[in-house]
Design brief:
CATH superfamily of the largest domain in chain A: Thiamin diphosphate (ThDP)-binding fold, Pyr/PP domains
CATH architecture of chain B: 3-Layer(aba) Sandwich
Structural class of chain A: alpha/beta
Bound molecules: thiamine diphosphate, magnesium ion
CATH superfamily of chain B: Thiamin diphosphate (ThDP)-binding fold, Pyr/PP domains
Mean pLDDT of chain B: 95
Number of helices of chain A: 12
Helix content of chain A: 25-40%
Structural class of chain B: alpha/beta
Low-confidence stretches of chain B: none
Number of strands of chain B: 8
Largest sheet of chain B: 6 strands, parallel
Oligomer: heterodimer
CATH class of the largest domain in chain A: Alpha Beta
CATH class of chain B: Alpha Beta
Largest interface: A-B, 36 and 39 residues
CATH topology of chain B: Rossmann fold
Order of helices and strands of chain B: HHEHHEHEHEEEHEHEHHH
Radius of gyration of chain B: 19 Å
Strand order of the largest sheet of chain A: 3-2-4-5-7-6-12
Number of helices of chain B: 11
Order of helices and strands of chain A: EHEHEHEHHEHEHEEEEHEEHEHEHH
Shape of chain A: globular
Radius of gyration of chain A: 19 Å
Chain lengths: 326, 339
């Protein structure tokens, strides 16, 4: 077991799968010669050549479309969208094509495709470069959506995603590439449909994924000092959404908080909260509390931006309020 | 690296450009952008500016040569590399620097930052951070101009990389189809991030992409401000008088990395040096000296004035107030006016 950054864990997964299966290839903007905007694909063009690590023009629609067609024609593409913000110009390919082809053609074809893309904000990149869109994708039948928050999960889920026969949206986060964690060597597979308790606790359940997992962990430590024991459920599997560990946890704690980096309206927390109401209403001592970004396009100004995104203090205050301790 | 210019479509030597005042104006504008951007880099390194920051250094002739051909009521749409574009369109450098600092006095009240400058007053219709995004918007302004029978022109400015995305092709097609007064300006600085034009575009002479839409296409040496200005004058006149769009490729170079955080490992130092030998500001200065329009002392004095102007912009930005956190939700929606 090695300690790796998220970026290197992802790089390892790509390298291992490319070595394992000749049909796996990568395509995207500046992923080869430039080694990737966030250096996730570092060294891979040198190692595997330009056929298997394909630098593309700035043409998201054709990147995803090419990946879909290649997937239908016998390859296993891993497309990189430099950031999730740019996938908005290619949503037709993602939704109308990738997600629907299998069903629409009566099971006649399949699309074994991975779209890797980082989202998230907090780097003063402004309204057009700070999006979290996992809920948009998770809305769509036919897509699988995962968003790992630890290097170990990132490696294991990326390997599983590449071997999966369906289009998988693999959501990364610009704010987590440098975090470190233990990563099992070699064959390490994490299922795409299993959420995971990342921290045990008794008083309140915090559901979070990706970068918000870090925020939740910081908040849980602070709550601990205040005598509140928080359990953290990692929502790394967003679609299909594995509710089992959430429900089990809520039955124990009676209190639930959802925490996401995107806007709350119609968001991940909205879905999780309704599922809790449907499946564990009688166990709740209070309504589910949802935390998300302020409902504004992300502002550039540092101070405004900090207020706009959820942070540790928001979680602590919310947990205390939920437990009637404010 | 002499750029092959297209055989001139009967290019008349405009008297205005032999005129000392006209040349001096171009010179000052270019130098202002150069000094502003150098200061911006410095401020970024001091963490006064955050986020992504893309500089115009090297591209001054292409920017000033094109935008100076416009009237105040003409529109400019741009991308994220737009500090100089806004300044050339008349936006006060103070307001630009204040925006980079995230201040309430900035062009977008600190909400936008480096990539999202805007000025309704100067018809600088914004910096957009998604490649190709603003071309369709420029088409829309062109449509509005024709609709209301106004005599304004729209200039849409973008990079070489942007000419490979669908929105570019869709926009050129309808601009020609609907006879819109839009001048599409491609600042071909040889790279889109780390990818050279030849690795991203099947056609490396970007102006030729106009042919597919039966549109006027021109290629000009983007290091020569006078040449850029002359061809732009023609294309702007064509847009204004005949409602015919065009595509102008300015062949130029960015001396710095793609953004302040680019390690810049994909090109040789020699290549950068080569282009710098043709620096547009130095060339015009030399030319004007030769023609006895400027002395070395004049050039020194102009530089001092402009450096002082940039210092003033920094001071203004520094002393300006931050946005009030209470205003976080201001301007998500417009208040609809009664009609
Ligand atoms: C749709 C989209 N894809 C990718 C990006 C990331 N990106 C920002 S600038 C850039 C390069 C653009 O190159 P070019 O059009 O030549 O303009 P330049 O930066 O050279 O001025 C890329 C790939 C983006 N902003 N938007
Ligand atoms: Mg370029």
């Amino acid at each position: 077991m090695a300690v790796l950054t998220m970026r290197d864990a992802l790089n390892q997964a790509l390298r291992e799968e490319m070595n394992r299966d000749e049909t796996v290839f990568l395509l995207g903007e500046d992923i080869g010669l430039y080694d990737g905007s966030f250096k996730v694909t570092r060294g891979l063009m040198k190692e595997f050549g330009e056929k298997r690590v394909l630098d593309t023009p700035i043409a998201e629609e054709v990147i995803i479309g090419t990946a879909i067609g290649a997937a239908m024609s016998g390859l296993r593409p891993v497309a990189e969208m430099m950031t999730v913000n740019f996938i908005l110009v290619a949503m037709d390919q993602v939704v109308n094509a990738a997600a629907h082809i299998r069903y629409m053609f009566g099971g006649g074809s399949k699309v074994p495709l991975v779209i890797r893309t980082p989202g998230g904000g907090g780097h003063q990149l402004g309204a057009q470069h700070s999006h979290s869109h996992e809920n948009w994708f998770a809305h769509v039948p036919g897509l699988k959506v995962v968003a790992p928050g630890t290097p170990g999960d990132a490696k294991g889920m990326l390997k599983s995603a590449i071997r999966d026969d369906n289009p998988v949206m693999f959501i990364e986060n610009e704010g987590t590439y440098a975090i470190k964690g233990e990563v099992p060597d070699g064959e390490h597979l994490v299922p795409l449909d299993k959420n995971d308790v990342k921290r045990q606790g008794d008083d309140v359940t915090i559901c979070a994924h990706s970068r918000m997992l870090i925020v939740a962990t910081e908040a849980a430590k602070e709550l601990e000092q205040q005598g509140i024991s928080a359990e953290i459920v990692d929502l790394r599997a967003l679609r299909p959404l594995d509710m089992a560990p959430v429900i089990e946890s809520v039955k124990k704690t009676g209190h639930a908080i959802t925490l996401e980096e995107g806007w709350r309206s119609y968001g991940v927390g909205a879905e999780v909260a309704s599922r809790i109401y449907e499946e564990a209403f009688d166990y709740l001592d209070a309504p589910v509390a949802r935390i998300g970004a302020a409902e504004v396009p992300t502002p550039y100004n540092k101070r405004l931006e900090r207020i706009a995104f959820p942070g540790k203090a928001d979680v602590v205050v919310t947990a205390r309020a939920l437990l009637g301790k404010n | 690296m002499k750029v092959e210019q297209r055989p001139a479509t009967e290019r008349k030597q405009k008297d205005a450009l032999k005129d000392r005042d006209a040349l001096l104006h171009l010179y000052r504008e270019m130098l202002l952008i150069r000094r502003f951007e150098e200061k911006t880099a410095e401020m970024y390194q001091m963490a006064k500016i955050g986020g992504f920051c893309h500089l115009n250094i090297g591209e001054e002739a292409a920017i000033v040569g094109t935008i100076s051909a416009l009237r105040p009521k003409d529109y400019v749409y741009s991308n994220y590399r737009e500090h100089g574009h806004a300044i050339a369109k008349g936006v006060d450098p103070k307001a630009v620097m204040a925006e980079l600092f995230g201040k309430e006095t900035g062009t977008s009240h600190g909400r936008g930052g480096s990539m999202h400058l805007f000025s309704q007053e100067h018809r600088f219709y914004g910096g957009y951070a998604i490649v190709g995004e603003a071309l369709p918007l420029a088409v829309g302004s062109g449509y509005a101009i024709n609709y209301q029978e106004r005599d304004e022109v729209v200039m849409s400015i973008f990079g070489d990389g942007a000419t490979n995305i669908g929105a570019f092709h869709e926009s050129l097609n309808v601009a020609k189809l609907w006879h819109l007064p839009v001048v599409f300006v491609c600042i071909n600085n040889q790279y889109g991030m780390g990818t050279s034009v030849g690795r991203a575009s099947s056609v490396t002479e970007i102006w030729r992409k106009a042919c597919a839409y039966d549109m006027t296409g021109e290629r000009v040496d983007g290091m020569d401000v006078v040449a850029v200005r002359q061809v732009t004058d023609e294309l702007v006149a064509q847009a204004r008088e005949q409602h015919e769009p065009s595509l102008l490729e300015c062949v130029t170079y960015r001396y710095r990395g793609h953004s302040m955080s680019d390690p810049d490992t994909y090109r040789g130092k020699d290549e950068i040096k080569q282009w710098q030998t043709r620096d547009s500001i130095l060339s015009l200065g030399e030319q004007m000296k030769k023609q006895k329009m400027l002395t070395a002392e004049d050039i020194e004095k102009i530089d001092q004035e402009i450096t002082a102007q940039v210092e003033e912009a920094v001071k203004f930005a520094d002393e300006s107030p931050e946005p009030d956190p209470k205003d976080l939700y201001r301007d998500v929606y417009a208040e609809s006016e009664a009609r």
